[in-house]
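Model the whole thing, not chain by chain.
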Amino acid sequence: MKIRFWGVRGSFAMSGRDFLRYGGNTTSVELRTDAGERLLIDLGTGATELAKTLMGSEFGKGQGKLPILLSHTHLDHIQGLPFFTPFFIKGNEIRILGANPASSQLEATLQNQLAPHYSPLNGLENLAAGVSIETFTPGQALSLPGFEVQTAALPHGNMWTTGFRITADGKTVTYLSDVEYPNVEDPLPTAIALAQDADLLIHDAMHADHDYDQRRGWGHSPARAGVVVAERAGAKKLALFHHSPDATDDMIDEVVQRTSARTAVPVFAAAEGSYLDV
Amino acid sequence: MKITFWGVRGSYPVPGAATVRYGGQTSCVEARSAAGDCVIVDAGTGMRALGNKLVREMTGPQRYNVLLSHVHWDHIQGLPFFSPAYVPGTKIAVHALLTAADELQQVIGGITRHEFFPMPLEAVPAQFEFHQVEPGVEFDLGAFHVTPIALNHPFGSVGYRIDGDGSSWAYIADTAPFTDVLHKQHFLAGPEPLSDGDKTSLGTMREALLRKLQGVDTVVYDTHFLPDEYARFPHFGHSTPDQALEICVEAKVRRLVLYHHAPSHSDEQMDQIAAQYLAKGEKLGIEVLTSFEGMTLPIGVEPAT
């Protein structure tokens, strides 16, 4: 299984010189099996970059099939939806899979994003591709072409996000973005279970450890939370993810350095455009 | 009066090496009078950096006036990240066209629904006010006199002529030209044939725009597309620099600023566009500038010293 990070930034897309190495696009991660099946996680602005690549393939001809997992519907995770060009090509079949947000429906939320005052698309029905919105209950397992997915609800401030454990080609990637555990030093067993023996753990690292105290309760983790999960779960590698919009490239370097110094688990910061063979 | 561009991009923010010089953030322009009065036009992602600057300079709670051209995401997405909104005592007055059946407050409140953003509008410390603008109905905001102008964009959009300190500028975005497509309150999968009534509506809109722009010093105009791009997407609601120049020549404007750049236009392409239209403008007697993030322009001809 191969993974490519198309967007690694949290909350807000950041442009400019200070964000060139790690990238300024908001969250979107592509997984590919050895046989070529694809799975996308989240539709932040990074998805618009992937879209350019996809349009040169079967998706440009209306023959593409893509399942997309949404962790949740905060804007930085769906911002790329109206600009993801495979949606505009008739014949493509795109599945969007996510949990219903509390007190709302996933489909209604995405329709609201494309409501006429916000977007000229005026609703999902105007996307030319075949688009299906499929909801699951966190905890439910999903079987997608080439991928087996386990899901779990995790706390994200005043709402819930979905964590994913994705297995393909005998390898496992765990995606825990936008999570904040009630106790950072003692992460929730559900999170540890999802990351058990994972080959790669992608974890929310929005805050540097020293900044966390002022930002407690905002729904994001300090870098050290991912370390505790990785160590307890026996994950083989940790990718710090969902970087703060205030974190420049140099600041992220520093976080990686400090985080590496406290654990034997290999740590790196996810960088836009980078490939990884899991 | 001077204006500063905090976001010059259209549609969605485009980070990366290709947009370092012109900038990747979406629509947001700050106007400031000589006395320090401020008005913000559009609340795209550029508004985050503006807010951070305003908080750094803040001596006490302030009142901000935000004029919205319309409420597509690229023009409102910065609002929840505008840091003065989290300073108690701040007042934010949002002025916008009422285009949908919903109340303006619901539209703006809708972007902070819990599905989209962690903090609902009611929980934000700043006090929000919502004012509906109507094309042709002028109003004053401190040192500024504001004239809303109807534009041609899906579900409606409004431009603003802003007079202050004895000079004037206008913000004309987002808009399609007034020739091929009349934007109404429904989705356009492609250009629709124009009825005689549509042609009259377009003509009326164009006449009103020309009248309001008469003699304006600087016009900031939606020039999202190059002509070949416009030919493919005439129903997207955006203009080309050539179409903007045509309007500015007729309205006898001194200076045109290209704005709302397509997300696909790299810095190199923007350099070419800037050079090409600077030359074209010179022949027509109009100074053509290409906006970039961080650009500040004094409005009005500088007095000779």
